[in-house]
Design goal:
Structural class: mainly alpha
CATH architecture: Orthogonal Bundle
Distance between the termini: 23 Å
Number of strands: 0
CATH superfamily: ACP-like
CATH topology: Non-ribosomal Peptide Synthetase Peptidyl Carrier Protein, Chain A
Shape: globular
Helix content: 55-70%
Number of helices: 3
């Protein structure tokens, strides 16, 4: 398993917890709003947990784009590169 795969699985656990799902229910490209009935408060909670766990800051302006696990993972990678 690569570092990216490991990170994606960690994110899956984090997002599933916020969305009150089992991690295996959360598909990489499943839409948080359309498929999992998330609201804006849950999106902000996901962002806050990512910021805290990975010690990076993803701007809230990016929230509309962060609707899938894959998109969140891509943003995490992008902002990690900027930081480090």
């Amino acid at each position: 398993m690569t570092q990216t795969d490991t990170q994606l699985e960690e994110l899956r656990e984090l997002v599933a917890e916020v969305l009150e799902l089992e991690p295996e229910e959360l598909e990489d490209n499943g839409d948080f709003i359309d498929d999992y009935e998330a609201d804006s408060l849950r999106a902000i909670e996901i962002l806050a947990r990512i910021d805290k766990q990975y010690k990076i800051e993803i701007p809230q302006a990016e929230l509309p784009e962060l609707r899938t696990l894959r998109a969140v993972n891509d943003a995490l990678i992008r902002h990690s590169v900027k930081k480090g």
